[in-house]
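Posting this for the archive.
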Amino acid sequence: MHHITILAVGRLKEKYLAEGAAEYLKRLSAYARVAVEEVNDESFPESLSLLEREKAKEKEGARLLKRLRQATYLIALDLQGARYSSGEMAAVFDKLALEGKGDITFVIGGSLGLPQTVLGKADLRLSFSSLTFPHQLIRIILLEQIFRWFKISRGEPYHK
């Protein structure tokens, strides 16, 4: 059985997002052990210099790195990452399972993204779109996609 961790910067503050995440976590419990771990995000004013933005990302990144398990397969959500269809990602999950890599961690950065210190440790950098999504919403999208990947892998129907 897969052990999946979603390691995210920040908390789901809106009730509807927390409810959406809880629903997909409940659905996923039939397929894998899935846990969500959150680290604090940095508070900062809207007008940051490039250097200040990088410092804030590095602080968030340090918190993320402290939470990584040694042998986990790390997938970083990154706008510059590779793009896969849902079917292709289901195949990636299947391949990882065959290779004995059932411990998978997805990492989601905060509103500034992920620093190079985290991206450089990733086994896979994954992009869902060239569109930009709020980091809180991408967590729900990720949970839904993981659920979809399991359904595809098992040949089970998925509602449209």
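The chain has a mean pLDDT of 93. The chain has one domain: 2-153.
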